[in-house]
């Protein structure tokens, strides 16, 4: 059942967005319009698309029907500072969005985020002097047939699903996960250098996912640093991301990182860490409360393929159940007794991208991120960025 368009949605939307980003219309006007002549401005198309998602519209045709009995045209005209007489057909959105260059939407997203950063809206979220950016990928459109060669596919138990996957970098601030940048994962990301087609076919789903995300990350992080050359940032990722290639990219781009490390991921690093930390001079701290016992171990400058890696391992035992949970992270930030718990806190911010990020957009917000909003790959990238 489609949710009714709220009479307050437009007013709340306008007050909020123009309070924080007063030059939003100017930023939209700066997007290079691919059309020579048009009936509907870029201001209208983008602002109305934002409103459509806020109103839980799950298709482009939502705008043709849901707004008919409201003061939508009057209100959107006030927002865009233009006189809008008619609601456009859904095909107009796809036609225009399919011709906008991704770089134009990336600039638009940057201007909004830069405005927020410059005005210190997110300053309280800095930890140890840096903003926390969480890295992860999500599937955001699914189909049961091949739409185009650009779509990824996966076959499980004889059933094939086609999908798109986007690598996201989200800033965790004010209990929110805010999109900073995204990168579409491509079919060629499945392949590592010098791999044969046969080797690619024999990869597990987990290995394929890891290679796709790592290759997309290596493209995205240099772009991020080029756009934000002086921003103090920390990249946080799950257990897919620890690799010598990504560690080198972070170092080259002057980025701090914290990655989850599973025991079997880099066994040589784990062995050396456990050897050092078990010595009498090893770094460790034991804390105990009524409910649990927490053992935290750490060491700096452990060699991994010529790189100096800093490692944290934490074991938490529940006194009531006797159950132990183990976590391990690697970072290029020097670990001290004074900052270790702040580093661990940053590492656990990774949950925000799943909960306040992807889960809300797929399940709880009504946006339905997995819906096929368009079959055109360029239009999809524009729509995805507008959702963010």
Describe the 3D structure.
By secondary structure, the chain is α+β, with helices and mostly antiparallel strands. 39% of the residues lie in helices and 23% in strands. Strands 1, 2, 3, 4, 5, 6, 7, 8, 9 and 10 form a ten-stranded mixed sheet that branches. Residues 1-5 have low confidence and may be disordered. It has helices spanning 9-20, 24-29, 42-54, 62-65, 72-80, 90-97, 102-118, 197-201, 205-227, 244-252, 267-277, 340-347, 351-364, 377-387; strands at residues 131-143, 152-156, 159-173, 176-184, 233-237, 256-260, 283-288, 292-304, 307-318, 324-331. The protein has 14 helices and ten strands. α7 runs parallel beside α14 (377-387).
Topology of helices and strands:
Layout: H1 9-20, H2 24-29, H3 42-54, H4 62-65, H5 72-80, H6 90-97, H7 102-118, E1 131-143, E2 152-156, E3 159-173, E4 176-184, H8 197-201, H9 205-227, E5 233-237, H10 244-252, E6 256-260, H11 267-277, E7 283-288, E8 292-304, E9 307-318, E10 324-331, H12 340-347, H13 351-364, H14 377-387
Helix pairs in contact: 3-5, 6-14, 7-14, 9-10
Describe what is shown at a glance.
It contains 14 helices and 10 strands. The protein is of the alpha+beta class and 388 residues long.
Shape: globular
What is the N-to-C succession of helices and strands?
HHHHHHHEEEEHHEHEHEEEEHHH
How large is the radius of gyration? 23 Å
Query: Helical region count?
Result: 14
Arithmetic mean of pLDDT: 86
Largest sheet: 10 strands, mixed
- Count of distinct strands: 10
Helix content: 25-40%
- Gap between N and C termini: 24 Å
Unreliable runs:
1-5
């Amino acid at each position: 059942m489609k949710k009714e368009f709220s009479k307050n949605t437009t007013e709340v939307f306008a007050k909020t967005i123009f309070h924080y980003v007063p030059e939003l219309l100017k930023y939209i006007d700066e997007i290079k319009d691919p059309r020579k002549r048009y009936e509907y401005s870029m201001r209208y198309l983008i602002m109305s698309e934002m409103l459509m998602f806020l109103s839980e519209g799950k298709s482009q045709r939502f705008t043709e029907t849901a707004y008919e009995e409201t003061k939508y045209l009057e209100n959107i005209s006030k927002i865009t500072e233009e006189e809008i007489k008619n609601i456009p057909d859904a095909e107009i959105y796809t036609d225009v969005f399919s011709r906008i260059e991704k770089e134009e939407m990336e600039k638009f997203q940057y201007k909004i985020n830069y405005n927020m950063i410059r005005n210190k809206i997110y300053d309280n979220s800095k930890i140890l002097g840096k903003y926390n950016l969480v890295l992860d990928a999500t599937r955001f459109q699914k189909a049961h047939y091949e739409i185009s060669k650009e779509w990824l596919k996966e076959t499980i138990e004889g059933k094939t699903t086609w999908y798109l996957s986007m690598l996201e970098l989200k800033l965790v601030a004010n209990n929110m996960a805010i999109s900073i940048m995204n990168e579409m994962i491509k079919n060629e990301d499945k392949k590592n250098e010098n791999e044969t087609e046969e080797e690619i076919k024999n990869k597990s789903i987990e290995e394929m996912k890891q290679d796709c995300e790592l290759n997309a990350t290596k493209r995205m992080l240099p772009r991020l640093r080029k756009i934000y050359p002086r921003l103090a940032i920390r990249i946080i990722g799950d257990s897919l991301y620890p690799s010598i290639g990504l560690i080198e990219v972070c170092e080259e781009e002057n980025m701090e990182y914290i990655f989850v490390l599973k025991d079997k991921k880099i066994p040589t690093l784990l062995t050396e860490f456990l050897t050092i930390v078990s010595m009498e001079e090893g770094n460790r701290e034991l804390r105990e409360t009524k409910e649990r016992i927490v053992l935290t171990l750490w060491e700096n400058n452990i060699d991994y393929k010529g790189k100096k890696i800093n490692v944290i391992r934490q074991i938490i035992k529940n006194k009531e159940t006797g159950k132990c949970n183990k976590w391990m992270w690697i970072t290029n930030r020097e670990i001290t007794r004074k900052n270790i718990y702040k580093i661990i806190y940053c590492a656990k911010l990774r949950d925000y991208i799943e909960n306040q990020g992807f889960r809300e957009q797929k399940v709880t917000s009504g946006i339905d991120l997995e819906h096929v909003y368009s079959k055109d790959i360029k239009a999809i990238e524009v729509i995805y960025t507008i959702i963010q």
